[in-house]
Amino acid sequence: MRNTFTIAWKETKAYFTTPTAYIVGAMFLVLTGIFFVFDMTRPFAEASVRNFVSWASLFIMFLAPLLTMRLLAEEQKMGTLELLLTAPVQDWEVVLGKYIASFVTLMVTVAFTFYYVVLLYVFATPDTGPILSAYFGLVLYGSAALAIGLMASSLSGNQIVAAVVGIGILLTLSFIDRIASIVEGLAADVLNGVSMNAHFTDFARGVIDTSHIVYYISMAAVFLFIAVRSLETRRWR
After folding, report:
1. How far apart are alpha carbons 160 and 166 in whole angstroms?
2. pLDDT tens for residues 70-85?
3. Which residue in 40, 106, 44, 38 sits closest to 71, CA to CA?
4. Is the separation of the CB atoms in 102 and 68 below 8 Å?
């Protein structure tokens, strides 16, 4: 694990010593802030973050691939990935280290949205339970989205291609439940079962279901596994 944390620390510093984290984070905060204000200023507004975290999860679909697109794609383009893979470090350590760095960066960005929660407590009396569950769901959603983005980054040496592939996969997995509304039976159950949005809805409502937690953890594990396998194949090219 020492190699993993060394890589994670290196990548985390790289995020915060370049404009990437600040620009992407600022875009996320501005967009979520706009929708938070719109939600709070409408008539009979509810003192909760349910609508806010729903919009935040939508923005994470774009934020996560933007944060992860360079992690492996840039290494491939610069030719440093081969040097990294020939070093005394395991492929899974490389993937996990970079994943931890992106997760930390995303969590720092999300943490700044606590300002909106503070405003709710200043001007209203919201229920703490649904707020905690909503943020917990957002963390799980983000963890799965980052794994998907990192997997996409492992497939190409082009950062733009990696970002587009990651966003495409996330859009498909997020809105595939819309297709379930026009089919019936087992097909509808399967489509709802793999939909990221379908599993996020309960968290936004203040309900924590173990099956949803297992789903997001499993999604993150599966796509990280694919990313590791993608790196392993490069040893034999």
Report:
1. 10
2. 877 776 766 666 666 6
3. 106
4. yes
| Backbone Cα Rg of the chain | 19
Question: How many whole angstroms separate alpha carbon 179 and alpha carbon 92?
Answer: 35
180 CB contacts (<8 Å, ≥6 apart)?
187, 188, 189, 191, 192, 195, 198
Asked if 100 and 4 touch (Cβ cutoff 8 Å), the reply is yes
Encoded amino acid at 37, one letter? V
pLDDT score recorded for residue 51: 75
Per-residue pLDDT of 106-118, as tens digits, reads: 998 888 888 888 8
- Cα–Cα nearest to 216, from 57, 12, 32, 56: 57
Confirm whether pTM is higher than 0.70: yes
Which tokens sit at 181? 């509304």
Instruction: State the Cα–Cα distance between residues 40 and 43, nearest whole angstrom.
Output: 8
Residue 140's pLDDT band, with cuts at 50, 70 and 90, is: very high
- Per cent of the chain over pLDDT 70 is 85
Please report where in the chains the tokens 């909106």 appear, as a residue: 116
Torsions phi, psi for 47 (to 5 deg): -80, 75
Measure the CA–CA gap between 119 and 198, rounded to whole angstroms.
28
